[in-house]
Amino acid sequence: MKFVNILINLVSVILLVCGCLAKPSNRETIMENEKELYSNFILRWTVIEGTGDIEIEIQANCTGWTGISFAEGQIGQPGSYSDVIMGGFNDDFQKGYSEDRHIDLENPDPANGHLFDDSNDILLKNARYEEPWTIIRILRSLNTGDKQDIPIVPGPMTVGWTYSSTDDTSLGHDTAGIGRVTFIPL
Length: 186
Ligand SMILES: *[C@@H]1O[C@H](CO)[C@@H](O)[C@H](O)[C@H]1NC(C)=O
Fold this sequence. Notes:
Residues 1-22 form the signal peptide. With 186 residues, the protein is mostly beta strands. Helices cover 8% and strands 46% of the residues. It has one domain (28-182): Cellobiose dehydrogenase, cytochrome domain (Immunoglobulin-like), CATH 2.60.40.1210. Strand 8 and strand 9 form a beta hairpin.
């Protein structure tokens, strides 16, 4: 066999083993809502009927990680924190990743800004890079019950958005802002 054929066969086997070819029509949730928070940042979401779950798609014009956050309280206020959902697509490994994190707003420490939640309550459904966009899909309960998360409730919510040119999630963002999003109408 020619080297190229061997390579193709090898790739097929790997794809089959990881199930990528086995179930190509894996039902994909249709994103019912969309909001552009910034020209380089689009948020889409669907609340999945009867499950208490929400699927969120983040499309950011970046080559690194991206994310959104919700805040409870204000910077400096005791007990206040921010709930962070972040992820991206690592080109080197051709692999998506996601992280459930939080920020201590009472005492924000720039050296260790985003702390991992004790409990990971987000599931990465999909991640890809389509130049220039990094697109990730995450499934989460509207209310995870984790005290390091913030429930997504009816009515407008303040959402922080952020993205980076690196997949190193220990490094800070390049660009960030805030917007208002009504995930669930009142
Ligand atoms: C993506 O961002 C770059 C600069 O960071 C900009 O030049 C380009 O127009 C943007 N592309 C889209 C589709 O917004």
